[in-house]
Design a protein that fits this description.
- Helix content is 28%, strand content 23%.
- The protein is of the alpha+beta class.
- The protein has a six-stranded antiparallel beta sheet.
- 30% of the residues are buried.
- It is elongated and about 55 Å long.
- It has one domain.
- The two termini are 21 Å apart.
Length: 186
Amino acid sequence: MSDAPNTPDGSSLPPAATPLTRAALEIDEYASGLGWDLPARLFALVDSAQLRRTDPKLAGKLGLAEGEPGLTPIEQDELPAGMELDKFLGTIAWPDMITGCALVVERLMLPPGAEHTRPKNATESQLAEWVANHPAREEVRITAAVLRDGSKETALRLRSKDLAREVLTGPDLVPGLTDALLATFS
């Protein structure tokens, strides 16, 4: 494991209703500081209080204040180059102390209604080309986060509105991705 995201004290982040939402926004803010056009990034989510109890040295290194509730994201090693994301996720087994996980990926998305112009019987590569050349496409950064208990959260940042206050959040924004992350705990 590598260090947790080195984010500001949170003052630039919007308030979050749950620890999972807060963790997703913290990871989004960290990824935002790295820029765009980067490979996927995987994070383990650990209970901050448990981390202070079990590994006070690491908790101190991460700057976790005593009594600070919530989840601590810890970035994992780089994903294997060239491996499809769904195949990679199928290889993950988390130890019991990991409360949840999060994944940051960049994708192209189309607005609702674009589906009706989708080419019929197109191959996967033809569909990818169609999306890449669609005039209404949006580049997005998706931060999907889940907990072992089935909780989900997603932070979605449009490249065209690359500001923390413009980040969309919700548990069902990218259900396929959050479901794939939840499967890493089964």
